[in-house]
Amino acid sequence: MRVLDPSGSMAGNDGSGSTRIAAARKAVGTVADALPDGYPTGLRVYGADKAKGCDDTRLVQPVTALDRAGLKRAVAGVEPKGDTPIGLSLRRAAGGLPGPAHGSMGKRTSLLISDGGDTCQAPPPCKVAAQLAASGVDLHIDAIGFQVAGAARTRLECLAKAGNGR
């Protein structure tokens, strides 16, 4: 499950003369291109639908066989807008991953693509990652950060470490 941050801060400069959301779109495309055909993939976004709201997270594509073009189109269609409910989005992303009832007993991965800014703070992303990692399924939470330093970098590192990821 890809968890993309198109919150308001992603409209900021990425350090190379472009925006963070443009860099995130490129990162999603690179990841999608590297995945094998048919790889189970889904997409959740947060901060894309409301100017304010710590409940602003939605499933864009459920986990199904990889549709590279569809995934890239979906990512291209979101614009930076609102708040950053990272913890809530990670929790809901994990809930959208296939479980044993669907014949999936192997490793599951959530990939957070964000600038690490957090305007919601509840539930705490690092704590959510630790809870999910300890839930008895083989879940790994990885993070890709854009222009992250200080508290934002620490937050992404913490959730990746707590979530058995990188």
Question: What does this 3D model show about the protein?
Answer:
Pfam families: VWA_2. It comes from Streptomyces caniferus. The protein contains five helices and five strands, in the order E-H-E-E-H-H-E-H-E-H. It has 166 residues and is an alpha/beta fold. The mean pLDDT is 91.
- CATH homolog superfamily: von Willebrand factor, type A domain
Helix content: 25-40%
User: What's the mean pLDDT score?
Assistant: 91
Largest sheet: 5 strands, mixed
Strand content: 15-25%
Approximate shape = globular
CATH fold-level assignment: Rossmann fold
Instruction: Give the class from helix and strand content and strand pairing.
Output: alpha/beta
Rg over CA atoms: 15 Å
The tally of helices reads 5
Strand order of the largest sheet: 3-2-1-4-5
Q: Measure the end-to-end span.
A: 15 Å
Summarize the structure.
It comes from Streptomyces caniferus. By secondary structure, the chain is of the alpha/beta class.
Provide key terms for this protein.
single chain; 166 residues; alpha/beta; five-stranded mixed beta sheet; 5 strands; 20% strand; vWFA_dom_sf
What's the arrangement of secondary structure elements?
Blueprint (H helix, E strand, L loop, with lengths): L1 E3 L15 H15 L5 E7 L10 E9 L2 H9 L9 H10 L12 E7 L10 H9 L5 E7 L4 H13 L4
Parallel strand pairs: 1-2, 1-4, 4-5
Antiparallel strand pairs: 2-3
